[in-house]
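Review form for a predicted model. The reviewer records the input and the model, then writes brief findings.
Reviewer: anonymous (R2)
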Amino acid sequence: METKTLDLLGTSLGIELGSTRIKAVLIDSAHNVVATGSHEWENQFENGYWTYALCDVWAGIQDAVAQVMAQVCEEYGTPLSQVGAVGVSAMMHGYLPFDENGNQLAAFRTWRNTTTARAAEKLTERFSFNIPQRWSIAHLYQAMLSNEAHLASLASINTLAGYVHEMLTGKRVLGVGEASGMFPIDSETGDYDARMVKTFDQILAEHHMSKTTKQLLPTVCKAGDDAGVLTAEGANRLDPTGVLQPGALMCPPEGDAGTGMVATNSIKVCTGNVSAGTSIFAMIVLSKALSRVYPEIDMVTTPEGLPVAMVHCNTCSSDLDAWVRVFGEMTAVSGASLTKSQCYDLFYKQALAGDPDCGGLVHFNYYAGEPITGLEDGCPLLLRRADSSLTFANLARVQLYSAMATLKLGMDLLLNSENVTLCSLMGHGGLFKTPLASQRLMAGALNVPVKVQKTAGEGGPWGMAVLAAYRKNKKEGQTLSQYLDEIVFRDEECTVCEPDPADVQGFADFIDRYQKCISVEKEAVEALKQ
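Model under review:
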């Protein structure tokens, strides 16, 4: 048997800390996946905030990386002692405050928190620019408005990806796409917006803060920029066994939105992608500015700094996962033997057999607040009339519809109110792992063709590995867009689902009932608060 070989210095490692899984993906010089590792984790609701402990961050990263290293050893008979390049991404936004010595001052506040409404509203007014509740600057300002004690020692703030990168390299930098989830970016300069920096400096002074905006925030980098190298301490953090050696080139850390754009080759003007997992969001690269400020639409950037309209919804697959788990338990009790993957495949297949309007069923999948529909908190809720058609197929279909509903409301503002041109959307993330179902229903929901590539299931971690490869391989003057078109996606195949008229009308009927029932969801949240 011929021994397989692997050029270790030709590899790139992408690590992504998602909401429910930490994943590591190692690719070779041709951008093919060589090995993967994953670690499941869950956020905790503590002292009024959704959070993750930083010790769990490193335990999860080490577990995922160890799986990659074990696969390489088994497949190629050689230890993964070196990699050519490394990149880190994570759930965007959130708030991690530190003192001058790098000590964490408060628990990590994730994108899922909806505790910053007052701050976000005031900043939106001062900036004349939409500041979402989950942005880092909104969390900081809310802490200032609440006179939180930790601010007396505050020296810097970061996102989760930025923090991990700093621990691996000693450099406090962020990719421009990730930075745009902290503070508004000026796409002309590729840096924090100077006018808004000046305004926030005034706000900091009004609250007797000792640092300026630029001192508090990480330095902004574009894709391909030098973001340091993996230090000896950083290598030990990834692999405490000491096999992995330092020296790998590090690319700027990015958020999961940026890696999704890369993974779907959606970084050019008028391209777009939808990422569907624990949360769901669409990213549309714009050709011109929007006509006005929309609270439902965030303005962020591509990893190269182009302006992007982002429709972000806090909840996507969590309640769908819960229903699949329940049906899996039922099959197990009955004596049937179905794997988790088989349960999902069966559930999605039945969704396609459901009535186009779900037989009159309405479902809210909210596990947390949903700013697009004006909810500060949420609870899953299934509604039906006595004469609705409650079947397994309709129940499965309404779960998928519910996962797409708030995204539809935000996207309508772009496609209808702003007349944004969009030829198709690239779908990626866990919701698209099962072939056809989510892709077809998403096309019907948004009335836009939806494409899915073979790498859709890998999503962000693979996209982060590609960004690391670009940092290592790019030629003089070669843009990220050129690198993706000419090298990474040159021979990529994808499937395309055109909108089915029956699905389009069915989803329109569903979303009409959904909007009428939002008040019921709000009442349910209030009734169950205690």
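Findings: The first helix runs from residue 54 to 76.
Further findings: DSSP finds 17 helices and 23 strands in the chain.
Recommendation: see findings above.
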